[in-house]
Design goal:
Two copies of one chain form a homodimer. By secondary structure, chain A is α/β, with parallel strands linked by helices. Helices cover about 40% and strands about 20% of the residues of chain A. Chain A has two domains: about 260 residues, TIM Barrel, CATH 3.20.20.105; about 90 residues, no CATH class. In chain A, helix 7 packs parallel to helix 8. The interface between A and B is large, with 38 and 38 residues.
């Protein structure tokens, strides 16, 4: 099941606020989904995710299929129960990960043969198998199996990926049958405008309850990403949620919403946290820097999260320098909170018809 | 300031329940103190420590002195504020760590010259300097600078360590002047009964508000530890708290309380957690073991902590195998909770005059 309703729009209809109803809850959009690759958002407990205001997380089909296995998770009662996360979950299709395994894979129209990055064992994924796996995992939203072409790639490669993505989307549609799980389609086409148009047309005809824009944020210049978003959102049905995959930089969330996107996911907040970097309203803070050694002010004076209320930059720097796990825990919490809060603020701006002011104000303060 | 009152005794007076009043709170004894070496209990937030029922933690003077430095922590407003821990803190003297730096140190009656394990830089600690540092850190309880002889060591070495420990204890007493901080004395003497007696006599005469039993749990057979405890607690004033340093195995907490100990600290619960091992009422659970791959029961069916209520052994094993930080977080929480709860149960047994039954019942179930 999935229901989506738009509550308000701004910027002549392109920026949208809405509400997404899933089997495990109702969530305000636009929404950012932190990534829990291996059935855990790294360095955060489910309780911390809840306190940070997280509604939906993304988990990775490829990783869970290999370890601990979809059958085990099904026997555990599904992914929600297995990982003790009662709210929304979206699982990706594994396509992105499998196509990133350079040299370890063989692609045909039937599916992809590949070797596990863990133990080298051989595996085969097809649209049907990916649907089986995702239905066993039991996320609220499943994704179609797609072919994600790299950047840069030739027009021919991108054409091939679009063809296969459409072929596989149809097979996913035909095979998927779990009623409490919504299946989203994915638009590919790399940075080629006509291929994006073709892909959107072929995917939309299958009438998915939601559409993802895949194959962006894979190394292309930001201007390419914005250009493709500019044209893609006009090609997708206005009344269905639009999900931009793999995007999580604060400025890109803003640019995405401006271009009609409702959902985002990215490892960025938790990954940069583990490298000792924090988001702030002024830009990124590299906590390790010596300049913070005796800085007893909060990470981000404009943030009201538990970390900014209770800890100083000096303490966080000490934890980073001493290689303490609490550094990862606290910085991950702050970074996730920061993006969740940013999305709430963007949403409020849309509701108040002030998206443009919010957008301008953001860039006045934020140092990219 | 420090106040200690014994509320009840059992086993003809040797097992005691009591109440310890410090600048940062009133705590029931017997008590277990988790270790926060570098101003953080590894993989646990202060909030988690609070939820696990932790009253006092121990932090390490040696580590904090080297990084981030006592002056910095003083300028931050003291250790409590720096690390956002509003309850009790005890700092050790750094003696144990300095004497563990094999080959890197030179000891005289004046103090210890040593090289930092972090960057090799030269440092000198004396009783007076250690008092200065601990007063800057501002813990509720500070420890005298002592010489901890290794196990095994010769009678002559142990004699020398006792002589210096007494000399230094006097100098610590003379130098210490922070009124909101209590200074404890430490009894040494290795496994030699007459040296323990001599050390206790020389330390007790200085009239500390509390006494630690040091130099045990350093590799000696358990029977030696129990034998030394049997004789030492009779040598210490009955109305002062007794603290057995570095002890945290469940069975040793029980044996310690049986022999008149009120306070314990140890890295054990958090250290074994990071190696994927959990305490349980039946003994240790090596979570990584394949036998738990599809075990959907809790870590310890007799434990009511958040981890045992919400997660299965199969999930925890998955986290350990996948090398996820959440494994460390959840297992550390459970292990700390387990010891805190054990101490509460021991306390209740003493209050009910049922320590012996509790003791026997524990060993019937617990697989060492």
């Amino acid at each position: 099941m999935l229901d989506f309703k738009i509550t308000r729009t701004d910027l002549n209809g392109s920026a949208r606020s809405g509400q997404l109803t899933t089997t495990h809850g109702v969530f305000n959009t636009p929404i950012f989904m932190p990534v829990g690759t291996q059935a855990t958002v790294k360095a955060m407990t489910p309780q911390m995710l809840g306190e940070a205001g997280v509604g939906i997380i993304l988990s990775n089909t490829y990783h869970l299929y290999l370890r601990p296995g979809a059958d085990l998770i099904e026997r555990a009662g599904g992914l929600h129960k297995f990982m003790n996360w009662p709210r929304g979950i979206l699982t990706d299709s594994g396509g992105f990960q499998v196509f990133s395994l350079k040299g370890l894979r063989k692609i045909s129209d039937e599916g992809v043969l590949f070797h596990s990055h863990i133990d080298g064992s051989r595996h085969f994924l097809s649209p049907e198998i990916v649907m089986q796996i995702q239905q066993k995992l039991g996320a609220d939203i499943a994704m179609s199996f797609d072919e994600c072409a790299p950047f840069p790639c030739s027009y021919e490669e991108a054409t091939q990926a679009v063809r296969r993505t459409s072929l596989w989307a149809k097979r996913c549609c035909d095979y998927h049958r779990r009623p409490d799980q919504a299946l989203f389609g994915i638009v590919q086409g790399n940075v080629f405008a006509d291929l994006r148009e073709q892909s959107a047309r072929e995917i939309v005809v299958l009438d998915f309850p939601g559409y993802a824009i895949g194959g962006l944020s894979v190394g292309e210049p930001k201007q390419d990403m914005y250009r493709i978003l500019d044209l893609t959102h006009h090609l997708l049905p206005a009344d269905k949620p639009r999900y931009l995959m793999g995007v999580g930089a604060p400025e890109d969330l803003l640019e995405g919403v401006k271009r009609g996107v409702d959902m985002f996911d990215c490892v960025l907040p938790t990954r940069i946290a583990r490298h000792g970097t924090a988001f702030s309203h002024r830009g990124k803070v590299v906590v390790r820097n010596a300049t913070y050694a005796e800085d007893f002010t909060p990470l981000d004076p404009d943030c009201d999260c538990q970390v900014c209320k209770n800890y100083s930059r000096a303490y966080l720097r000490h934890l980073v320098k001493a290689d303490e796990m609490l550094a990862h825990i606290l910085l991950s919490y702050h970074n996730v909170y920061f993006l969740i809060k940013l999305m709430q603020e963007i949403r409020e701006a849309i509701e108040d018809q002030k998206f443009e002011q919010f957008y301008n104000h953001f860039y006045e303060n934020y140092n990219i």
